[in-house]
Amino acid sequence: MAEKSEQKYFTSDEVLQNILADEADLSDNEDAQVITTNPAEAIDSAVRELWSLRNQTANFVAFEEESTRSLTSLFDKWEKHRVIQERILSSTIIAGSLIAEEVCEWLKIIRRRLSPRMKARNAWTVELTRYLSWSLFSLMKEVVLKSSTSFGIMLQQSEKEVVITFTNIGRVLRDFETFSRVARSEISSYYFSKTCRGKSKGKIAVLVTEEKPLQIKYIKRKSEIIFKCHYSFENEFGYVFS
Length: 242
Prior knowledge:
The chain is an alpha+beta fold. The protein is built from 8 helices and 8 strands, in the order αααααβαββααβββββ. Helix 5 packs across helix 7 (169-180). It is globular and about 70 Å long.
């Protein structure tokens, strides 16, 4: 009788180490073949190769400018830090899908709880608590940390908890788009805002500022996520409550 092959399971730390090791190997191979240069200079050099087409275009200056914008946008999309983020989210068979499913559930709960009625406790806030394994949360944390900029984000870590604080709505939309695979325009216009009809007419919108940040707290002992954000309600007469 053939013996069953033993299936090996990897921890999130091992997954991340393998990903970053692969990136390092890829970087070493690239460095052996290509001389590192300034991205803007490389793009300018590539665009100059198009000068031979100037007699075949109706407006070569416009063509040249659009080529520069297109190449810059393409480079931004495939820059190393972005590739690392994508590989982290697709590094295990279902990690990316599980994260997307979980964050989509957050978005649905947020929308449901955006209410024009002021609560007696924690007024004009949405707070939710969810179970989430440390393995998945640590992957999400790494995606945030591997971003090219720390603008609009603060991270606090201790033995008991990890707190990610967002102070900029643009940063929230970008990271939530990455996690949920939902377009940031849809997150902004649907999940983070609501038009109220009936007795309490008006508009509701999620707020993310330094004074009223969006916060994700992970309690390690409980494997628990506590999500909290603020929102405003503008009634039909133009009065804003938050």
